[in-house]
Amino acid sequence: MIRAAKSAAALAALALTVLAAPAAEAAADPLAALRAQQPLWHSCATGPDDAAGADLDAAGARCTEVTVPLDYRDPGGRTIGVALSRLPATDPAHRLGTLFYNPGGPGVPARHLALALRQAAPALGARYDIVGMDPRFVGAGTPLDCGWPTAGPGSAGPDRLTFDRAAEVAKDLAGRCAPYRDLLPHASTRNTARDMDLVRSVLGEPRIAYLGSSYGSYLGEVYLQLFPGRVGRAVFDAAMDPDRFGPDLTATQGPAMGAALTAWASWAARHDDRHHLGVTTAEVLASVERVRLAAGRGPLTVGSHRVDGRVLPQVLWTVSAGDDGGAYEEFSALVRVLADAAEGRPARPTALLEAVLTGLAAPDTGGYAAVQTAIMCADRAASRDPLGYYRDIQAHRADEPLFGPLTRNLTPCTYWPADPAEPPTRVRNAVPVLLVGADGDPAATYPGQLSAHRALAASRLVTLRGAFRHTVYAGLFAPRDTCVDAAVDRYLLDGVLPAQDYDCPAARS
Fold first, then answer.
1. Of 29, 113, 352, 367, which sits most exposed with the smallest number of CB within 10 A?
2. What is the 3-state secondary structure (H, E, C) of 248-281?
3. What's the confidence (pLDDT) of residue 275?
4. Where does residue 429 rank: exposed (0-12), middle (13-18), buried (19+ CB within 10 A)?
């Protein structure tokens, strides 16, 4: 009897030990169960009309979904899914590891753009598995679509009446997201960084390499801050100011956009034989000013479209598409059409202008603009005072007459139905990282890049001087530069971070 009792007690103790082990493990790591998930890899194409997915499949990619917490403060609560693709290294014998790539946005699916990176930088694709992860609420995971009839309020226009119309649009868009107020606080970049680290763990990678462009650089900055030991080599292309990122970041972009427009005007003056906008930089800019004034008086007729003072700055924003001859040629033709319309002549849109105007009038297909807004509203609270924005616009009418009413305008975040769940991430660390960017970048302004450089104390900065383009690596979204490409490839492939900051001179077209 005594022996049997001892045996029963031993078995009971063993059972308690077995039961206690998972409980202790969960207490030590609340994400243990999610880290243990086994993703089901499958074809990337979601149907016969999914050309991007078919291209991934043809390139040997596989896709999957990973379950993540909606709220990392409650890891055992509600979950959502994030979708990703993985392209295996084409030279597995010399594989360096896994590289996560985010192309920017926010609100842009990254899954299918992993292939674009491998095509643009085949040396990286040879040595790394490339992972493209759609951020939470974006793309093929658990999407969020507020059903917006337009992508945003646009410019505040020339006067108080047009500002009030923009405010009405912003308020309406915010209201359309109100049914999702339980999700909105958790759309932050901070949570996407946490998702990325959970995916890293599920993939069995102790550390990752990372390449982020534009918004992707801010995601990388936050990831570095939260998980400094999980990053091997990281490159941020067109680094965002981590102390300003949020719904009002665009307020810094007006002067940079003006400089980009002036750079184009200098090019257009040298090619006046084709578009007849002026033979000097000042004359070309005067042509643009006449268009602005005319659109402020009444809508310009361009084909079947009407271009008023609220739409025009959005159209002219396309000057940021690139600073090479081809991009400038297209933009010059676009401005010529607008100038004709401003002068009362028949104006038929170019292919670029037709695409821009059609896009601006289109609903927010897929919810990408709404999610972009949700991410920025969750990252940093915006002012709830609409008139504060109007006063700021008015204060800058003289020095930013064209782009200021657009970049300084309010957004739906002013009326957003949910507050951020956490304060903004303060980025301050000494993790080695390479920053590359153009000093004339109209979106990731150079002062913002310098702010990121200071916040990342062990970073090195390679500057493309005299360039007015957004992003600079591998020709992914702007003209390619061999000097910048060499710096990035040397670091990601060979691990050689520059000993000091240096400049690359931009090629002239």
1. 29
2. CHHHHCHHHHHHHHHHHHHHHHHCHHHHCCCCCH
3. 94
4. middle
Q: What is the mean pLDDT of residues 424-428?
A: 97
Using an 8 Å Cβ cutoff, are 335 and 480 in contact?
Answer: no
* Residue 247, φ and ψ in degrees, nearest 5: -65, -20
DSSP-derived 3-state class of residue 127: helix
Share of the chain above pLDDT 90, in %: 91
d(CA 144, CA 367): 6
pLDDT confidence of 507, banded at 50, 70, 90? confident
Alpha helix stretches (DSSP H) within 279-433: 281-297, 312-316, 325-342, 351-361, 368-379, 386-395, 404-407
Helix/strand/coil (H, E, C) string of 182-213? Answer: CCHHHCCHHHHHHHHHHHHHHCCCCCEEEEEE
Calculated CA dihedral for residues 398, 399, 402, 403, nearest 10 degrees: -130
Q: Please work out, in degrees rounded to the nearest 5, the angle formed at the alpha carbon of residue 453 by the alpha carbons of 449 and 458.
A: 155
The DSSP letter of residue 299 is P
Q: What distance in Å separates the CA atoms of residue 274 and residue 73, rounded to the nearest whole number?
A: 60
**Amino acid 25: pLDDT:** 47
From the list 502, 435, 447, the residue with the least C-alpha distance to 472 is: 435
The overall average pLDDT reported for the chain is 93
Q: Please check whether residue 104 is in contact with residue 134, taking contact to mean a CB–CB distance below 8 angstroms.
A: no
Domain boundaries, the chain: 2-30
Element (H, E) at 5: helix 2-28
Amino acid identity at 244 = R
**DSSP letter string, 405-425:** HHHTS--GGGG-SS--SSPPP
Torsion sign, CA atoms 186, 62, 471, 124: positive
Count of all residues that appear for the chain in the document: 509
How far apart are alpha carbons 178 and 90 in whole angstroms? 46
pLDDT in tens, 42-79: 999 999 999 999 999 999 999 999 999 999 999 999 99
CA separation, residue 463 to residues 27, 359, 504, 506 (Å)? 46, 33, 6, 9
Q: DSSP label at 345? A: S
Q: Which residue has the tokens 């920017």?
A: 104
pLDDT in tens, 173-217: 999 999 999 999 999 999 999 999 999 999 999 999 999 999 999
pLDDT band at 366 (very low <50, low <70, confident <90, very high): confident
495: three-class secondary structure by DSSP: coil
**Nearest-angstrom CA–CA distance, 199 and 110:** 14
DSSP line for 57-125: HHTT-EEEEEEEESSTTSTTS-EEEEEEEEEPPS-GGG--EEEEEE--TTT---TTHHHHHHHH-HHHH
Helix (H) or strand (E) holding 138: none
User: Looking at residues 209-227, what average pLDDT do you find?
Assistant: 98
SS3 361: helix
